[in-house]
Every structure is written in structure tokens, then in C-alpha cells.
Model the fold of this input.
Amino acid sequence: MENLVYQNTRLENRAYWLTILRWLFVVGVGLTTFATQRFIGLELPYRWIYIFTSAFILINLITYYLLNRTKGISGDNSRALKRIINFQTSGDLLVLAIIIHFAGGIENPFYLYFFFQMVIASTLVSPLDSYLQATFALFLMAITACFECIGTIPHYPLEGFIGHDLYQNKFYVLVSVIVFGTTSYLIVYLTISISSALRKQEEAYRQANIELNKKDAIKNEYVLRVTHDIKSHLAAIQTNLNVAAQLFKSSDKQKEFIDRAYSRSFRLTEFIKDLLKLTRIRLEDKFSGESFSLKDTLLKVAGTLKSDATDKSIDFRTDISPEIDLFFGSAFSMEEVFTNLLSNAIKYTQKNGSVSLKAIRKGNEIHIEITDTGIGIPEGEQEQIFDEFYRATNARKSEEEGTGMGMSIVAKIIERHHGKISLKSKEGEGTTVYVSLPKEDRSIGVQL
Amino acid sequence: MSRAKILLVDDDPDFILAVQAILENNNYQVIPALNRKEAMEKLEAEKPDLTILDVMMEQPNDGFEMAREIKEDDSYKDMPIIMLTSIDGMTGINFKAAMQSKDWLPVDAYLEKPVEPDTILEEIQKFLSK
Done:
């Protein structure tokens, strides 16, 4: 069905395109005739030439009328459209043959224009119709040439332009007709085979695209289902363990094992959540952007994480300039980014250390710095920190848990917002993460 | 003070059992329901003070539809609904943003499974102490 609509739209567009070409052709023929009359001064029946040139206008008007009528037809109107294109082609050939007859007949090199008609028709109508059109062209050409040759109809010579007795030379007329005929059929044959090969290829691409879209939908459905099922089981396990650990009296030994099981199920859940987040960011080719206050997002994140810092007696400072207020992007993702970065900073900073969040505006950019006095990232590993599943060796050795996906999620989101992220770190001394974001880049939501 | 009644709707009996234990331990009366139909019947019969609802039950959007159905009914429109689910952004729905529009997702809070007992108790207290 989709294919049909596509085919029909293509035919309809082409039918209109032909009328536009015809308008240009009318102007072209008119000007050429006028120039011939005015500047070359050939003796020709100009009145007839002008009259038949305006017959092209008539063809266009009839075409518009017919096209309008097909719009009312519901369903497949490709046959009607092809008939219209056939009508246009035959009409053009007939009118062109008549004009050429009045302008020198076989002496007129404009005969070659017939070939345009054949190329165009061959790409649009059926092969049989294309061959019939070529035959019609050949018939028109041959009959005018022959009748002019034997004197059945008058000949209007292009005097002074070309040898004016050529039309009487039977051998010349015969060869011309043969060459014209073979050229026509060859053109039609070549055009049909090239355009049908192209059409097949195009169709194959379209089908492949439809298949891809279908598979994509199945995959999304599948991921959703799997996510739901895995997380449902985990949620049940975790909640039940929680009840067992907290509500019922159990021995220390029992409690220890329940706690271990709980902690592992908790970590598995975190891991799956992160994995899904990352998958989602990779699969989405766009997200809906909105204007929101980045300052509020930062304040919110800082507020949420303040207690974690206080618990470790970490000196936590924020310096957020009011100038960075409005930002265009995904508020949800930005919260994710800064929660990740700040909680990392707090997580990997020892007791009594310090963490700071600084945000300023620089021209059209927002610069955010998160500095800690934590364990730092070993020199050789600073690049890898943004890789999926990568955790720095000293982070792995520390007591802290992590999925190794936080930084790659952060990097992907920043990238989506056309921003940049980099870091400076020294093992044992601390880390500073620099994020810069374009202030109001509205193209973000459109295409990424 | 009579115990507050909570309607707990989820298609996972293990989950229901555990959450029920937590809630009952905190002195709430729990009415469990395993599907939408049962939930609507119990809602009618028990007139709970609050409902905890899972998004995906028999149909992927049973929870959403049920939330809408409840909030459209004048007798329940003031009853808080806490939506609890294990699906997240994968559906393309950003719940936090969707909650801004009450017509679309007419719930009062949204929590992602698995949820810590303290978190869910806090949420419940927030609504029931009003």
C-alpha cells in the first residue's frame, strides 16, 4: 500500500513536471521562431508555426484538467496517471512533427527533440507503451518525410540554412528514417533497462528500510519486555530479602547471609539500570529538548547529595552563577550527568576532604567544574575512564561499588548536548572534571 | 486512630507479599489486588486511603489506564496514587516530566522498582499525614 502511494505520487509529480517543461518549451520554440523570422529572415509559414506552438499550451491545459480529475479517484490511480503521461507524450510528438513539417521537415535538426520524449516516456510508462510511442514518432517522422519527398504535401525549405533539395533525395530520406527508427528503439530499450534496474534497486532499498524499521520496533518491544521482567524478579527478590533482614528475628549468621544476598541483588539492579540507560542513549537518535533552568538542576543535585558529603565530613561548596539559568536540552539527562559527577567526587574523596561545584557563563557557553581532593585517576587510565565498563584500578581497589558505566553515560549525554567533557587528575591528590555546554543550542532536540 | 487502608496493586504475588509485610509492620492495613479487575472491585468495596499501582500488569499500560479511570471518578479523585514500576525510560516515557501533566499520567508520585522500604514509607506518610 505504501509502495503504491509512493509510485502514484511519483507519477503525478512527473506528469506535473512535464507540463513545466512544456511551458519552457513553448517559450523556447516561440523565441526561436521569432528570432528566425526577425534575424535570419527565412521564408516560412510562421502563422502556422505559432498556431501549432500554442497547441502545446492546449496540451498543458488538458493535462491539468485530467490530473485534477484523477485526484477524486480513491485507491490506485496509477493507470490513469500513466494514460495522462501517454497522452502528453503523443500530443507532444504530434505537435512537434507538425511544427517541424512547417519548418523544413527532414532538413530541420530539431527532429532530434523527439528523442527527449522517448527517454522521458520510457522512464514513466510501461515498456509496451514506450515502444508504441517510439513507433508513433517514427511513423510521424517517416510519413512527413516521405510525403514531402514524393510531393503529396508541400515542403517548406529552410532556404540558405541547409541544402534545400535534400528532402527530394530518396536515398537520404530512407537512410534518415532508418537511422531515426533504430536510434529511437535503442534509446527506448536502453532507458527502459536502465530505469527498471534503478527502480528495482530503489525498491530493494525501500524494502530493506521497511524491514529495518520493523526489526527496530520488535527490538524495542523486546528490550522493554526483558527490562521489565528482569527488574520485576529482582525487585521481588530484593524486597523479600529486605523483609527477611528487617522484620524477622534471625541469628547473626543468618542475617549476614541475607545481607550479602541483598547487597548483591542491589548491585545487580544498579548494573542493569545503568546498562539500560546506556543502551537507551545509544539507541535513541533524538530526545525531546526543552528549555529549563540548569541552575535549578544543579542546585537540586547539590541539595540531594549534600548529606552524603556531610556524612563523610567533606567540605562541600557550590558556586553557581545566576547567569547560567536557561538551558535547552533534556533536564532529566542533565540531572543524571551532574548526579553522576558529583556523587563520584564525593564517593572517591576521603573523610575531611573537599568537593566543589563551580558553574559560570562564558559568552555562549556554560562552564562547569567539579573538583575533589579524592583518590584521583592514575595517569595512564584517564582516557579510558569514559569507556563502557571501565573502572580505574584504584577505584576497583577501593571499598566503593560502581558499575563502570557512570562516566560513559555522562560522556554520551554531554555529547548529545553538543558539549565537551574533559578532566585533570593526579593520583592521590584529586580530580577536576570540566564540562562545557552551549547555552541555547536549539538544534539539539531536532537531530543528533 | 484507625489504621490507614492501602490498596496494593501488582501482578507479582511475591512482591505483594513482601511489600504487604513492610506496610503491615508499619501499622497500615493492606488490601492486595493482583489485576486491574480485582483492584477496581476492591477499590469499590474497601474505599482505601491510598493506592500503590504497578504500571505493567496484564496489558503493558494497565496501570496508566487504571490511574486515569480512578482519577476520573469523583469519589476517588482525591485519593493519592503512588505509581510503582520496573519500566523506565525504555518506553520513551519520562515519568517525572509526564507527571507535570496530570491529564496524561494522573498519579501523585512515581517510584521505580525495586524500591527501598524507607522510601515507600516516606512517600506514603507524605500523602497520609496531609
About this structure: The CA atoms of residues 53 and 83 of chain B lie 5 Å apart. The helical segments of chain B are 13-25, 36-46, 62-72, 95-98, 117-128. Chain B has five helices and five strands.
